[in-house]
Design brief:
Elements lengths: L2 H37 L5 H11 L3 H12 L19 H11 L13 H18 L3 H10 L1 H8 L17 H21 L1
Length: 192
């Protein structure tokens, strides 16, 4: 084989390797992106978009709460009888319903309807974000309840300033807050 043919063969081999590497990178990047969008979906987007806009919420935060609460299962029920996508208890639903006013005819059974559940979940999230000075504290209240968080804020060991939590005493709530915030970072990276 002549020197020229060996050189041409070498270039072809190099180009084939580069093509394989580029193809592998493309598959790795877009394949992992495909799997991530399956793991972090944007289901019920018409309701999320409408209610997030209505209550001044970040859509990615709403998706993150839904993913953490129910993994987008509208039939989800917890051991505490929390219902639906955003996991609202009947008592929380009635409390939020009272804050909305307007004489709504919806009942706790209506929380199984994704539109109703997202509406009341977004209203609750909005209320908590306006009640507390930090997002982490508001998310703690979404998970553990306003009563628990109020108690934590009055404890100087947990909240030196009485407004933000330096430490969340419930491990489940601490993990929940971390999970929601991690979800939001992933949603922002995938969909922005």
């Amino acid at each position: 084989m002549t020197r020229q043919k060996r050189r041409a063969r070498g270039w072809r081999a190099a180009l084939c390797c580069l093509a394989l590497l580029a193809g592998g990178f493309w598959c790795l990047f877009y394949g992992s992106r495909f799997f991530l969008t399956q793991a972090y979906p944007v289901r019920y987007s018409e309701y999320v978009r409408q209610e997030a806009s209505q209550y001044g919420l970040d859509e990615f935060l709403v998706y993150s709460v839904i993913r953490a609460e129910s993994s987008f299962d509208p039939d989800a029920r917890s051991h505490a009888n929390a219902i639906g996508l955003m996991q609202l208890t009947p008592a929380t639903f009635e409390w939020v319903q009272g804050k909305l006013g307007g004489g709504s005819q919806e009942t706790a059974e209506d929380l199984e309807d994704p539109e109703v559940n997202i509406r009341y979940g977004c209203k609750l999230l909005s209320m908590l974000l306006s009640m507390y000075s930090s997002e982490e504290t508001a998310l703690s209240a979404y998970n553990a309840g306003v009563g628990a968080v109020s108690g934590w804020l009055s404890d100087p060991a947990l909240s030196p300033d009485g407004e933000t939590l330096a430490r969340i005493p419930y491990p489940e709530t601490e993990r929940y807050v971390e999970k929601v915030l991690q979800n939001r970072r992933i949603y922002a990276a995938l969909y922005e």
